[in-house]
Design goal:
2 helices, 26% helix, alpha/beta
């Protein structure tokens, strides 16, 4: 019987891209998006980050969203809708 070797890493159709140019010197008056990855404790990481941001800067508003699953990238329609509401998005993982 022949030996079959499987590659568990899979393939991704996503492409890497350059980071967006930095538009802000600070976060005063900005609306911040916090994207929960759905991993365990991700919400706690983001809660702590939100507190720190609001203590350090005069953040206008914090908008929270949740990905459907940590196992996949955020759906493009959700990403665009979030981007329309905020000046920048931060995400974090837990565990």
């Amino acid at each position: 019987m022949p030996t079959i070797l499987l590659n568990p890493t899979g393939q991704s159709v996503e492409q890497t891209s350059a980071l967006a140019p930095r538009r802000f010197r600070d976060l005063d008056g900005k609306t911040i998006g916090l994207l929960h990855s759905t991993k365990h404790n991700s919400d706690r990481v983001l809660d702590g980050l939100s507190e720190l941001l609001e203590q350090r800067w005069a953040v206008k508003k914090v908008v929270r969203q949740r990905k459907p699953t940590f196992a996949r990238p955020i759906p493009m329609d959700q990403a665009k809708a979030l981007a329309d509401q905020v000046d920048l998005v931060l995400t974090g993982i837990g565990d």
